[in-house]
# Entry
Amino acid sequence: MFAKFYDFIIRKHLEVLTIIFVGISLILLSQTENHVIFSLQTKWKDVSSFVEKPILEQQRKRKVIEENKQLRMDVFRLNQEISHLRSLDTENERLREMLGFRDTSKYELLPSLILYKGFKSGANIITLDKGRNDNVHKNDIIIDKDGLIGRILSSGKRSSISSMIIEPDVRVSVRINPSRVYGILKWHHGNIFVIEDIPTNIDIKPGWTVTTSGFSEIYPPDIPIGVITDVSSSENGFTYLIYGDYFVSFKTLHEVFILRNYEK
Amino acid sequence: MKSNQTNSRILYIVLSVLFIISAIFNDFIGIAGIHPDILLIILFFLAFNEKPVMVIIAAFVFGFLQDIFLPGSVQYWGLSPLFKTLIIYILLKLLPFIQRFKGFVFYMSLFTVMLVYYVFYNLLYYSGYVKPFIILYRYAVPETLYTFLLLLIINVIFPIHNKNGR
# Structure
């Protein structure tokens, strides 16, 4: 019996090997977050970042010059807006003091360069050039000037791996403003998100903004995410299907900020 | 015979260097988000020059290496070893037939195997988010063309079609 089995294994060794490898691959596929692989990836990026970083820095310099021209124009436009907002801020402060509110934002922004943006287009993993040496840890939040990008999955000494919120499995607790309705946001496709299960008796309009709710253990409140573009009724008629565009253009990201020392 | 072995070694060194370069400079070698799969090229060369058991082990290990060094998506770890193992198994089974072909038909058969790999890999990778037809013309065909073109260039220096067989 054993001899027959042994003969079979020897005769069909290629098929047996293939089945074993396919089995291992399927086990790997069933695990969403494998921390052994995370640590291997961060260690590799720690090594390769030595070579990648100088080239990326050069590219960045060229881009910065281009951006600088654009920013000069933006500064002029924004100065006008600031003067208007200052007057509103003073009024807001006065009203907050009257209500006993305090400023709760204690964010420290750490600029970081993207070293790697995924093997394929549409990938939702990025590698950043900051790691544990810069006090970057798992679940630190990544943003850019427009809004939320994602969170750190694993940090090495000099680099860290992060996932973006345009991952199919990611859900973010959000607040729709100005109605202050809470919902769960998920990626739909491209740069579009969807929020479901909001009752139709609540007023929601295109053009309203979506921010983090603060109910999540990971994401702090009031980080901009996107703007609503389409509000339609779901098949059951009781809830909305709310579509919107992310503020962040995930395809063109080059630099990000890591939020540290915020109050989770 | 000895010259063949030396050639093979040089080829594998060249391909390994190419893989390291592609792993480090992945963003730079991409054209409109399309990247060549150097490891798949190495596997094609291995399939024609090494023992089947070695090649199938290499297919799994290379797929695993791709997931570690060139991660794409958190929820698809294991997809590369899965499809690399399967396509190399199919290639090994078809090898006796493919080796009979010459010239254009030979290269077209390699192209077809490569295309099958990319079609199935991308169909799963983008499943539910991109329409199958778009997957075909936006990802599968361009990636196959880019990788196959690179294979042809390497093939000019180190011919893949080893007439002496393994």
